[in-house]
């Protein structure tokens, strides 16, 4: 039983990181109608900024991590103002190829800058453990859960209470009406990109100490985030996050029960099963792209 | 078909076949074979993406079905091309229909992601069903294809010989593509794309047409896989990664989706740009990504769309 | 008058001579390696190591009067790319020989090609046992291999492991290397009465071992056999510690690579006591390690070291021999024949190719002690196919 619980905890950690990326992806899809197949690369970039700040400036994790997240917000802004504007006018298919090009660019750029060798971000909390309810986890995982919870709740608050959040939701739910009401689409789009970038950034800095930082770490995360968004629809942040958690747990359980070889594909198996049983998605409202 | 079109087709075919003789080295011949395979794959991809807007990222799955069916039948039962090809094509069509049924219920983006999943699952199966496929240890020793038509012998034993067979495969792919996308079939597709409900009301069965296209697309992709197995004699799971899908996406969307010219141009541009960059490793990849991004941003209807637009303007100005 | 003419003539000759000497003919060696993809680390270290080897050879006057040039190409770890690369190197760049770092599936794919094009393919990290019978006598005369594979190491390394533990869990790469190794060790471990409690495979570069470790731990094995490479070993070490499982670790993961120790330098105790059955150790090759780190400001990896020796320690003497036998000229055929004949000593052991074009450098059993590698044993291995 303890073993099962440990696997589930593993899965929830993984899933919550996928969730951060999936949330940003869902926001971009729902609010801005932008299919960002390079979204996992924001996670990767954030991890490398972290590596760079630590190695280059000797900053401790507690300082470097928030800076990296801020940096990703800036990257989101730049992305919105440059590539985003042009691609926004196109169909999602062209957005797909365009963002794939961005993925290739970023990956090779990082390899040229940092080398192909993986980097590690050793953090003291990652190897110091605590035992709760019969299972042992590292302190860093506790940090992960707390940080993700804060990020998720913060996002919900923003979307429900803040004026900008309400404008985002209006744009997502009824684009024509929102535009007629005079909502500044360009501004909202930029804010959404910044937010999505920052969320992925949080994922990246949390991810790095638990695993390893490689130039190709972004792509598998993008796939799983996409699977989560497809399963849940781009309209409910709660559903998207829950779907991501489900994928993470499925992956961990696969590893724990003899199907480790299929781990990468496991998320998609789950997605396919969900879609077979419920084509309208977990939230009851299918993707509207 | 009009006689002039047929004549043009025959002339092009002869020219294409002649190109093998002119190839300066086996490397060049191999590059031509690769180009031919990519053209087939790109045509199969565009059948769906360029005509009913369904971006199927499942190409690796069908390619694998083709390659492994051929590989396994050839190594275990000494089957030749005349057995492996029909077997693989039939299997691929079946899988396409079975998978398409649930997938076509989804929205466009969901369909794409679902098909991506299909590709990833197929790759995982190829890697792990070791008793069947050899997994990472590969299926090796696949005999080259050898078909004797009287005095003419078609084979995949050398790049130059294989090229001839590859051109024939391209011809078949082209004919299939044209048959399914022009005339009545083309009008049906246009109807479905325009308004599915109206089309259904008029007695057109959208799902049946979509499944037909998907099956044809899968079958052509599998045929390319069969060729690949007999040509390289080794079938490894590493060849069926999303890498392949990305190449196809690039070819079709940069070239120009939905048009024959676009697909052919895209394939040619892709091979033309990526081969020289091969020796440059990461810098080459960076350049490739930059060129790709620039092309996507600059050509909303693909390069072919731009070329035909330009030609149109020149003609009207003249 | 004659003296002046003579001195002008001599002066002229002296001016021309360096220019002529500058134009030393060049021999090209192709390197097909994994510069991108999940094994990009291997390609990177190959390129650095072989560049160093070539620079050293040329600085010492070249080989048999020839300048050596290395041409690198990326096979991306994909077999079809390996084929295109081999054709390009052999046909377009007209290389004398190809150093093959494409992994087993790549090497398998290029076998027919190198035979068609008649160019030597020297594999240095292809572990599929089938390659033995496919090369040399009765098979492809152009295929050579300088790395030994696990079927050859199995008896020696398994015996070492069996002396230290009675039960073992196995964690291996889900590829030809990992699966091949498990296939080689399983029967021998059984013979030696070592109980294998469980075997799990994972994808190269996969980031999360925790579910697998949690599963394997349940059966309480006395030891753990980890079959991977240096880079993944570092992540594995951290996660093993995080999971809190203190178990003796045996590896086939080139943890003797300085890169591994660098990756865990913040806490070298993570790998204390780990052992490795490997094809290279820094202890026997300190000069290489030092020069590599000075030149590239980065740590060496086993694969790169093997590449260095493949070029400097094996190909160079073979080229020299081919030149000697060929009256100063070196052809692909000549190089092939020379490789079959030479017998050289390298820091990793003697290299002499048998009738299946297989060489047998040494196996090193290495242990991490006090944050440093220590060679426990150096042994020659079983020759021929099992």
Oligomer: heterotrimer
Low-confidence stretches of chain B: none
- Tally of DSSP β-strands of chain C: 14
Question: Could you report the average pLDDT of chain C, rounded to the nearest whole number?
Answer: 88
Residues in β-strands, percent of chain C: 15-25%
What is the radius of gyration of chain C? Answer: 23 Å
Strand order of the largest sheet of chain B: 1-4
Residue ranges of chain C: pLDDT <50 for 5 or more in a row?
A: 14-22
The number of distinct helices of chain B, counting runs of at least 4 residues, comes to 14
Q: How would you characterize this protein structure?
A:
The complex is a heterotrimer of chains A (289), B (318) and C (386). With 289 residues, chain A is an all-alpha fold. Helix content of chain A is 76%, strand content 3%. A two-stranded antiparallel sheet of chain A has the order 1-2. In chain A, strand 1 (129-132) and strand 2 form a beta hairpin. In chain A, 61% of the residues are buried. The mean pLDDT of chain A is 87. In chain B, helix 3 (59-77) packs antiparallel against helix 4 and helix 3 (59-77) packs across helix 10 (206-232). Chain B is globular, with a radius of gyration of 20 Å. Chain C is an alpha/beta fold. Chain C has 13 helices and 14 strands. In chain C, strand 8 (223-227), helix 9 and strand 9 form a beta-alpha-beta unit. In chain C, helix 2 crosses helix 12, helix 3 packs parallel to helix 4 and helix 12 packs across helix 13 (332-341). Chain C starts with a helix and ends in a 7-residue tail after the last strand. At the B-C interface, helix 2 and helix 13 of B face strand 2, helix 3, helix 4 and helix 7 of C.
SSE arrangement:
The complex is a heterotrimer of chains A (289), B (318) and C (386).
Chain A: H1 2-32, H2 39-57, H3 61-88, H4 92-114, H5 124-127, E1 129-132, E2 135-138, H6 139-161, H7 163-173, H8 175-180, H9 185-210, H10 218-232, H11 237-256, H12 263-277
Antiparallel strand pairs in A: 1-2
Chain B: H1 3-22, H2 26-49, H3 59-77, H4 81-103, H5 108-128, H6 130-133, E1 139-140, E2 146-149, E3 152-155, H7 159-181, H8 183-194, H9 196-201, H10 206-232, E4 234-235, H11 242-255, H12 260-277, H13 281-298, H14 302-317
Antiparallel strand pairs in B: 1-4, 2-3
Helix pairs in contact in B: 1-7, 2-7, 2-10, 2-11, 2-12, 3-4, 3-5, 3-10, 4-10, 7-10, 11-12, 11-14, 12-14
Chain C: H1 2-22, E1 26-33, H2 40-59, E2 67-74, H3 79-92, E3 97-101, H4 103-117, E4 120-123, H5 130-134, E5 143-145, H6 150-164, E6 167-173, H7 176-191, E7 195-202, H8 210-217, E8 223-227, H9 230-243, E9 249-251, H10 258-263, E10 275-278, H11 286-296, H12 302-325, H13 332-341, E11 343-346, E12 349-352, E13 363-369, E14 372-379
